[in-house]
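$ run holo --ligand "zinc ion" --emit tokens
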Amino acid sequence: MNYPYSEAELRQQLCDIGRMMYERGFIGAADGNLAARIDDERLLVTPAGVLKGFMTPDMLVVTDLDGNALDGGRPSTEIKMHVALLQARPDVSAALHAHPPYTVSFSLAGIPLTRCVIPEIVVTIGNVPTVPYATPGTEELPDSLREPIKKSDVLLLERHGIVTVADEIWNCFKLLDMVEHAAKITHLAMQLGGAKVLDREQVEKLVQSRYDLGIGQRNTLADDAAVRASCSLPLRRG
Ligand SMILES: [Zn+2]
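-- output --
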């Protein structure tokens, strides 16, 4: 794997993204956590119990690939989730976890984010699968993500939050921002009487346009006709 950033650069990036997540309302208090590969043997992760909107570069924790601190620091309580994500996806360099309110509210209401509503989301990431509820801070949670993350760069964790993985931490943030913005628009449309989904033909054309536009990132709709078909079902509970 290629590591384009120095450890010092990564430390600054994680602080910048922690602040952005807080300012954009994607996390509250000490919520959320971030992890990035420094090299083939070490991860840089956010510390436990810290307000992510107010981190400084010296507060971040260096761990081995199993999440054991190498510098005496106390890594995130969700470190095992990040370890599981990065183990399952050797092709990515970074992982992010947050509690974006519009996205999570869909999960609380039992409305899936797998329906195709916003064309830009269909073209780029496809749709957002929901992983069934697992107790935060336990082994249940990392175990529940190992297989689903192989098929999607973004997962909605039922009643909890979102995880994203990408080639660098800024792109993890980009996915979070895109999904939360789409959830917000969908939520507003539902207040106005209902968000209409794209029909099957529109979805097929959008997925095809990925190839024409040269968009190469992972897309949950690209290789799965059954998922494409179900994404045009009406937007409702269950
Ligand atoms: Zn969480």
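-- notes --
The pocket of zinc ion is lined by residues 31, 97, 99, 136, 160-161 (CB under 6 Å).
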